[in-house]
Amino acid sequence: MASVLMLALLGTTTRAVAVVPEVSSRPAPSSAYQPAERPTLTARASFAVDITAGVELWAQEADRPLPPASTTKLMTALVVRRWLRPDESITIRSDDLVDPAVYANAGFQPGDRVTVTDLLAAMLIASAGDAALALARVAGERIDPEHDVPRTAFIDAMNQEAARLGLRHSWFATPDGRDVPGQTVSARDLAIIAAAVLSDPLLAELVATRTREIEIAGPQSRRITVVNTNQFLTEPDALGVKTGTSVAAGQCLVAAVRRGNDIVVLVLLSSRDRYADARALLTYLDRQYRWFTLDGRSFAELARLAREGIVPALVPTVVVANETADQVRVIIDRQHSSADVVGTVRLRIGTSDLFIVPLLRVER
């Protein structure tokens, strides 16, 4: 909203009398358009979306309800952030522990004292079920102090959060994602959850962290290192987000990558090879679409202006289908002015303006 208001206000600036003729610059020409071949994925459901632009890029059984496994912990994290402070300490109890032979865990012991931030880290980085159960118990006590089973109150809050986010094909029955009848999520719904997680600075940092040291206080004070279960973090421009694996769910993956200044989220559910599926889908997207950023990397004319100390007021990225990428061009309208605003730059596809941004003179 602030950027829209900025454009509206700057758009009312009086133009100088002398105007330099428009200069049009196209991106470097691409090879002749060839439609990208759709990948064959092992996942039963998949979805890809540019969450910055709000553009759906791929959908295959995207609204099919399927078991979520540990991707559930993304929703758990969102609810925890509503009810618990990052710096408060939680004491681990015996009913927070999970079977280490069956579920991922951080190896917590009864009496351990761990901050909410470190429990979130253990849950999101190492997919620790003991961290998820401890967080759900304490947050549930906060949500409904009169409830006989605090985790049930927490699960109710998870489903309320799902409704608030507009999820249509998801129902949560556990905070850790273990296989239970009726617990489902769709690929599209998981992309919405991931967008909410990535909008939270603390959670966004944690889901992108490869390793983290956690401080444990109490009778058995110690430090442990948690390692991210998400192997996709090694991919270029990867930003997280979460894995999940169970007998009922198969291999699940929610992944985020940066394209220009935009974030693209991929979701794969019930896959037999989630990382191969993710790479194949991302390769397809990069062949099917192009991302243009309003800067000198995409347009040579803007690089030349930057050397003069003239830059766009905003630097948005747009995604366009590759078949129309050669129609994208930037049009620069210079004004002779001593003011900070010295013109406008328009990104146009065909005869339609995608956006108009003021050009500013900056100190070099």
Automatic annotation (TrEMBL):
GO terms for biological process: cell wall organization; peptidoglycan biosynthetic process; proteolysis; regulation of cell shape. GO terms for molecular function: serine-type D-Ala-D-Ala carboxypeptidase activity. Substrate binds at K242. Residues 1-18 form the signal peptide. Keywords: Cell shape, Cell wall biogenesis/degradation, Hydrolase, Peptidoglycan synthesis, Signal. The keyword Ribosomal protein does not apply. Residues 36-270 form the Peptidase S11 D-alanyl-D-alanine carboxypeptidase A N-terminal domain. Coiled coil: none annotated. The active site is at S70 (acyl-ester intermediate), K73 (proton acceptor), S127. It comes from the Bacteria. Belongs to the peptidase S11 family. This is Beta-lactamase. It comes from Thermomicrobium roseum (strain ATCC 27502 / DSM 5159 / P-2). The lineage of its organism: Bacteria, Pseudomonadati, Thermomicrobiota, Thermomicrobia, Thermomicrobiales.
